[in-house]
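Entry type: protein chain
Record version: 2
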Amino acid sequence: MIQEYCRLRVSSLLRIAISVDYVDEVIQLQAQDISPIPGVHPCLLGITNQRGSLLWVLHLEKFFGIQPMPLAKTMKAIALRLVMPDGETRRLACVVMGLEEIISLDTQKLFPVPDKLPLRSKSLLLGLAKIDGNTYGIVNINEVFRILNPDVGEREESAKLVGISTA
């Protein structure tokens, strides 16, 4: 099945693609506009006010378990949204190094995720795609939100990451 994806560079080591169905907008964040929240997992940088709504900011390098580079004072982020089965909408801003382009991918032709990747990274990726000589991880956005917003019955994961609220 052909779907459109937004190509993103998270770091010099990690390139990902996210279905445009989940992309809300591209935003620029200033470091001073992110309010850290004590007690949450270090991959959550804090919250920011986005047009009157609080938006959690996720450090994707840390989330994927990659040694993070220092963050710039001005950051690019991609705001994602997921509509839950109950109709509730959850939003999250993911810090990225660069935004590349929108591309069409045949999801039936993705390469499998290698077994040598850490378990969490494997669960976050639907597969891999080779594009312009680079390998991109196709992100499973449902899994990202599931890890960050564990269901009431799934408390093991919440011990690893503190849940985030809705925006």
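Comment: The radius of gyration is 15 Å.
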